[in-house]
Predict the structure.
Amino acid sequence: MQYAGSRFADEDFSNTNFHDADLAGAVFVNCRFPRCGFRAANLEGTHFERCVFFHPDDGDDGGVQFDFAILREASFEHCDLTTASFNHVSAYDLTLSHCQLQGADFGEADFRLPIRSNKDLATFTMEHCNFSYGNLSNTVLTECTLTNNRMIEMTAHNTRLDAANLSGSDISNLHGHGLSLCGADLRGAVFNNLDPREIDLRGVHITPDQALLLVEILGAIVDV
């Protein structure tokens, strides 16, 4: 079957092996992908809308694998990507909107422009998603947009979120050794354990109430 550049609606692709397949520029609307695999597939510019990738009967193993896939300029809208694995994907300008991403793993994903002279130019958008218990470890997300998400218990070891926009997101119980939030926009975000002694928070944009919370995290008693 030809996938690249094609449009599919209301199709059931359960148990299909898309490993190394070319799906560039394809559009999938209201399709099902339980127990599928997209390892090393070309998904550049591919759009998924209202698609289901998770099979609840498989529990923690029900997530789809996208490891090493090309996801540059791809987009997922209103999709269920619970526990999906995106390790080592090439994902410059990937967009995720209103998706279920609980437990999804983006460890070692590359959101940078694929030109080696611009290693730190990254583009990634995640908005209005449930990314609870997700993983963004060992990624560069400088100036990326991660707004209005539920990101509780997120893991972000050695992650660079410098100048990123996390406004409106809940990042409570964040796990992030080596995390940098230098210059990030945290206004309206919810957090409870951002310790300036362990996380680079230089230049962050916060509200007065959030500033008081950071002081209390340091153990100070604030009289107001």
